[in-house]
Write a structure and sequence with these properties.
By secondary structure, this protein is an alpha+beta fold. It has 4 domains: 219 residues, no CATH class; 275 residues, q2cbj1_9rhob like domain (Jelly Rolls, Sandwich), CATH 2.60.120; 163 residues, no CATH class; 127 residues, Roll (SH3 type barrels), CATH 2.30.30.140. 41% of the residues lie in helices and 14% in strands. The chain has 25 helices and 25 strands. α15 packs antiparallel against α16 and α19 packs across α21. It holds the Pfam family PhyH. InterPro entries: Fungal_Metabolite_Diox, Phytyl_CoA_dOase-like.
Length: 893
């Protein structure tokens, strides 16, 4: 047998037919030479073909399918989660009738908290190292903020940071585009726009210094009740020489902010930092201290009592790098820049509010909060500002603002999607925002205009935005579905073509088809699996489950239509009324840690503030007197009640179900006085009472408020509260025998019977109101003031000053003006608006077509229910349609 034949016979079992043929025509040495090149070509071309196929076919197909799944997921998330949130985020005026926590407070100049701007200064030096000193600074800052609505903090930015940031803003001002500019009032010589925290080293430096200022951070945490507050605004406002006075304004609207609806809307704060030494002529920010408690238009009052932030310093300069932190409820304005030789006034502004805690905290953005925030800066928090370059740069800022991704070590702030739907659901955006702010952003990211939805504001912002988003998603979904069908059809055709080629070459066409089909199935299956897992993760996440269960953006209070006997027994039966600044308010709708400083909102109501000052002084004395018996404790109670009465105050308790304020009878007021004196006598008791109140409020308004557990837990907690504070000692037979009233009798308040007032038919009006003993009219008294000695020319106001003989008075009118030296004959006491008073309800503009009736219900916003003398009834009559006339009624003769 020849050598060639042996090579053929003993070829390896894996040798191909082609190899055998070659072997039969060559010797052994030639066989090795010829086989080796053949294997090298095959091993080289196969990876190249695989790479080309992956790049040209598999990857584009996978990207197309991934895009289709992405849009499908967006469409599913929008319809499943966001459309229900649009409905829940909406707060109509009808909804807000049941969500009051305070009342519609009508302020005059008497309500200004100070006329001395240095009262706003807080020494929050970053060099403070003592824990006790830092805690004292925070307490002082929170106290000042709650009292005045603003604080001034020196030296927040270094001189280098101020210089660099001002230089950058000047360059940015010169190159700003129209689409970036935000509107401001009296904006002819003013400029404002959003700033990216990472767009320049000067901005990064300033942001870092602000966020790493330890006292400032502690102050914000205490104010907002959040260890990592959400960043809501980074902007600069420039006022050039010639800029006029802005109109006085609050940054939030009184009909939808935390002033009256603390559990519905978040309170927010803006930090103003001047980037130059600002004098009075350069247009510093003017503030109106104390107006964060005011619900009426106080323009005239603030204009009469205007105070500029430069007045906080002795040299009358608002220094570069200092900061003014303003509650966004407080009234303020940018004043006129009247110095033609001075540089433009630039203010750097950052704003904060508590992070959204969906399912736990029902609050949302206030109405009217026009944050000048650059679109990709939404979604960040204080922690991000401490090192902006780490997590606020692109593309991560874009993913963050769209609520797609954040680093695991960071928290979600208010992302762009959430803030936008909260705003347009309540008609709080500008009508042109959709067309002139959103559409340019869509162009930037490359979304073709032929995929956009319809833009039409005919049916309001909410319908317009919802329609645009839904149509854009549907158009994109339909387009990608068509493209995917066509692409997969082409891919299938190519597979069939190569399978046919393989069959022609006597290879397995079925094998070729199977391999390619399995490859597509694998890649698409992975993508489908990832999409499914993402959607499942969203559904099972805290956010998703809260949305689906209805907890996210649920109403802050349960519907009052649901009555429960066990809760009815916890309510007093006093007549409803509108509170006055001198009243002592016993709230029932605050008491939550997530409210931050607003948990103490009522402590700074004028009547409460004066009352608690007395309680704090008398608390230890009252506790020691308890050992001596009820006579001594009763005298302390009498003294405190008399002081409140002398200031024309009343004790009012809030109905936790309706939000109405009800007048307490003497025994109910005495029990309140007792509890306060005991709690303030010892810090531990004060903390225990506050903790119990928080738990009661959580059972009333929290996640489990509809359960039997919540209803009966309130009863047990109130029993515990009474045990902690003890029973009030009373001068009665039982107390003399050493048997105080039972706990049940203290908790179960018997109904107070209110006799219905008899209807009096109006015959005529007397020309002048009946005289009132003038010693009852003093500073703080609400009065009618006659300015022109005419029977109809009466104006409501508050007495600011009286001479020593009570002959002449200075009256702060509700329209903001102050009238001096009003004679006593032109002063009449203004009665409280409460159930049972006589009023005129009107059906025409200008208080015309008015008819007499009796008030049967008073709401916190001053709306009343009137039963007219002719038998007609109106449930909600606004203040513009009724009046308490400054004259006496006379029965018909």
């Amino acid at each position: 047998m020849s050598t060639a034949e042996m090579n053929i016979r003993f070829a390896s079992p894996g040798a191909t037919r082609f190899d055998s043929v070659n072997a039969s025509t060559a010797n052994s040495s030639n066989l090795k030479v010829r086989v080796s090149p053949t294997k090298s070509v095959a091993s080289t071309t196969a990876p190249v073909w695989t790479l080309l196929r992956t790049i040209l076919l598999d990857l584009p197909l996978a990207l197309l399918f991934a895009s289709f799944l992405f849009v499908y997921a967006c469409q599913y998330i929008h319809s499943t989660y966001y459309i229900p949130l649009y409905d829940r985020a909406q707060r109509t005026n009808e909804d807000l009738y049941e969500e009051f926590t305070y009342y519609h407070r009508h302020c005059t100049s008497y309500d200004l908290s100070t006329h001395h701007l240095p009262d706003l200064l807080v020494n929050a030096s970053a060099s403070l190292t003592s824990v006790a000193a830092a805690k004292e600074v925070v307490e002082d800052a929170v106290d000042t903020m709650l009292r005045h609505g603003a604080i001034v903090l020196p030296d927040l930015l270094t001189a280098d940071a101020v210089r660099d940031l001002r230089s950058y803003v000047e360059r940015r001002n010169a190159a700003i585009s129209d689409t970036e500019v935000y509107p401001v009032s009296q904006g002819d010589r003013r400029l404002s726009y959003g700033i990216d925290a990472t767009e320049d080293p000067a901005v990064v430096q300033a942001i870092r210094q602000i966020a790493n200022h330890t006292p400032l951070r502690a102050i914000m945490q205490a104010l907002l009740g959040d260890p990592d507050p959400a960043s809501a605004e980074i902007t600069a406002i420039t006022a050039y020489p010639g800029a006029e006075d802005q109109s006085w304004h609050a940054d939030t609207k009184e009909d939808g902010n935390a002033l009256k609806f603390a559990r519905t809307y978040s309170h927010s704060y803006s930090l103003f930092l001047p980037l130059q030494e600002t004098t009075a002529a350069m247009g510093p920010t003017d503030v109106c201290p104390g107006t964060h408690y005011c619900a009426n238009d106080v323009t005239e009052m603030c204009d009469t009592n205007k105070m500029g932030l430069h007045e906080a310093n002795e040299d009358l300069v608002f220094h570069a790098g200092d900061g003014a932190l303003l509650n966004q409820h407080v009234w303020h304005r940018g004043s006129a820049h009247t110095d033609p030789n001075a540089m433009e006034r630039i203010v750097f502004i950052v704003s904060f509010l508590a992070r959204p805690k969906f399912g736990k905290d029902p609050r949302q953005l206030s109405r009217g909060t026009y944050f000048h925030q650059k679109w990709n800066m939404w979604g960040h928090t204080w922690k991000d500002l401490m090192d902006p370059m780490a997590s606020m740069g692109k593309p991560f800022s874009i993913l963050r603002c769209l609520s797609i991704y954040k680093p695991w070590s960071r928290n979600w702030g208010y992302d762009l999607v959430t803030s936008a739907f909260m705003r347009f659901s309540n008609e709080q955006l500008e009508n042109e925002d959709l067309e002139f702010r959103l559409l340019p952003r869509l162009e930037e990211v490359g979304l073709p205009s032929w995929l956009w939805g319809t833009v039409s504001m005919e049916e309001g912002q909410r319908v317009a935005w919802q329609t645009f988003i839904s149509e854009t998603l549907n158009n994109t979904f339909t387009f990608l579905a068509e493209i995917n069908v066509k692409a997969h059809a082409v891919y299938g055709a190519l597979i069939a073509f190569f399978a046919c080629i393989a069959s022609i070459r006597r290879q397995s066409g079925v094998s070729v088809f199977r391999r390619n089909f399995l490859r597509v199935l694998l890649t698409h299956g992975v993508l489908l699996g990832v999409t499914f897992m993402i959607l499942r993760g969203i559904r099972t996440s805290e956010w998703g489950s809260s949305v689906l269960s209805g907890r996210t953006l649920q109403r802050p209070f349960p519907s009052i239509a649901i009555t429960r006997e066990v809760e009815d027994r916890m309510l007093i039966q006093g007549p409803t009324t509108v509170p006055h600044r001198s009243d002592v308010l016993i709230g029932s709708r605050y008491d939550a840690a997530f409210l931050g400083s607003y948990d103490r909102w009522l402590d700074y109501h004028a009547g409460n503030s004066d009352y608690l000052q007395i309680v704090e002084n008398l608390g230890p004395l009252y506790r020691s007197y308890q050992r001596l018996g009820p006579f001594f404790t009763t005298q302390v109670e009498n003294n405190l009640l008399s002081l409140v009465e002398e200031s024309e105050g009343r004790f009012l308790q809030q109905n936790f179900r309706t939000g109405d304020w009800q007048i307490m009878d003497e025994e109910e007021a005495r029990l309140v006085v007792h509890d306060d004196l005991i709690a303030w006598s010892k810090q531990l008791l004060w903390v225990l009472r506050r903790s119990i109140d928080h738990m009661v409020a959580d059972y009333r308004f929290g996640l489990f408020r509809q359960t039997s557990l919540a209803r009966y837990s309130q009863v047990h907690l109130l029993h515990l509260r009474r045990t902690v504070l003890g029973n009030r000692l009373v001068l009665s037979k039982s107390s003399r025998n050493g048997r105080p009233p039972s706990l049940q009798s203290q908790l179960s308040l018997s109904p107070l019977r209110i006799e219905a007032l008899s209807h009096i038919t109006i015959h005529r009006r007397s020309l002048l109101p009946p005289a009132v003993p003038l010693p009852e009219i003093r500073e703080g008294s609400r009065v009618w003031c006659n300015l022109q000695n005419m029977e109809w020319d009466w104006y409501p106001g508050v007495v600011e000053n009286a001479d020593e003989n009570y002959e002449f008075f200075d009256v702060a009118l509700e329209d903001g003006f102050i009238v001096e030296d009003v004679a006593k004959i032109d002063i009449r006491q203004y009665p409280h608006i409460k159930e049972g008073i006589r009023v005129h309800g009107c059906f025409g503009d200008g208080l015309e077509d008015c008819f007499p009736g009796t008030v049967f219900h008073v709401m916190p916003n001053r709306d009343v229910g009137i039963e007219y003398d002719d038998g007609d009834v109106e449930d909600r009559v606004p203040p513009s349609r009724y009046f308490v006339p400054p004259f006496a009624y006379e029965s018909p003769s």
